[in-house]
Amino acid sequence: MVCSADGHVVGSLSGGCVEEDLVEKLKDGVLAESHPQFFRYGESDEEAEQLGLPCGGHLDIVIEPLKSDDNTLRDFALLSSRLQQRKLSERVLDVRTSQRRISEIDAFAPFSYDYESRILRQVHGPSHQLFIIGASMVTQYVAELAIMLEYQVTICDPRQEMLEELDVVGVEKICAFPDDVIRERANDAQTAIVALTHDPRIDDMGLLEAFDTDAYYIGAMGSSRTSANRRERLLALDVSEDALARLHAPIGVPIGSKTPPEIAISILAEVIAERAKLAKNDELSQAEEALVAAI
To the nearest 10°, the Cα dihedral for 203, 172, 160, 234? Predict the structure, then answer.
């Protein structure tokens, strides 16, 4: 959450009374006026109940004042540049000393705050991207749902007339064969790639390139029979069994979906599940590294 000096807010903390109380304190200058500050809401059960927090729960907040100085502007320029390149940066704040630094990193790490050292670490990266191969009725619903879920959505299809029929606000449409575009625009670990055309001349070209990316999800629409035929074609094109193991086909969670909107829901459900699994694996890897370091 970001709050300007006049109380204009972007983002949220809890969606309740906490924001109102916090903004008033910030406007009155009683919090983090010149240095970062750790602050807790819900210290007592009474306060938690008053603020609408779960019984016995609390909300810990680090408040950081930012000034329009050269250091802050340089930090924002670096973050902006990295985001435009779909790359990650880690921002570290020492609440005790007000020192902060930004470093370029390759792998995502969960947000963390060390209560003893009072060090806050947060990884900033691009929006998760859904790269859709092919324009179709299913594409329309998948794109609309993905936009609601705050994905950056790119639709690639060499058929201009098919792209023109799609009317989804907020998506980027590219008229081209997908292989080159995937190589340039979808080669990162924050991207999911789905093939939805039913046309092997388009889908297969995109999938061949997708297997060489760091995408966390690759899926292709089609029945079990269609998916089996696709696997045979890809094996004939020298795609390895390990690469094919990354392919979700038939695509989506099996919820008995029949209509395009239902199929879209099943696809996004599986993409979200893979994204959550990836985050969980990252947390486990960090825990293992910390244990090894402690030993």
Answer: -10
Q: Which of 63, 110, 62 is nearest to 90 (CA)?
A: 110
Number of H helices, E strands in the chain: 10, 14
Order of all β-strands in the sheet with 172-174: 172-174, 152-156, 129-133, 191-195, 217-220, 247-248
Radius of gyration of the chain (CA): 23
What's the CA gap between 182 and 112, in Å, rounded? 33
Task: Give tens-digit pLDDT for 141-155.
Answer: 999 999 999 999 999
Rounded to whole angstroms, how far apart are CA atoms 51 and 193? 42
Give me the residues paired with residue 173 across strands.
155
Structure tokens at 53: 């927090």
Among 244, 215, 209, CA closest to 229: 244
CA distance 127 to 191: 9
pLDDT at 283: 58
How many CA within 13 A on the CB side of residue 68?
2
Return mean pLDDT, the chain. Answer: 88
Cβ density class 186-210: b for 16+ within 10 Å, e for less = bbbbbbbbbbbbebbebbbbbbbbb
Half-sphere exposure of 105 (CA within 13 A, CB side): 18
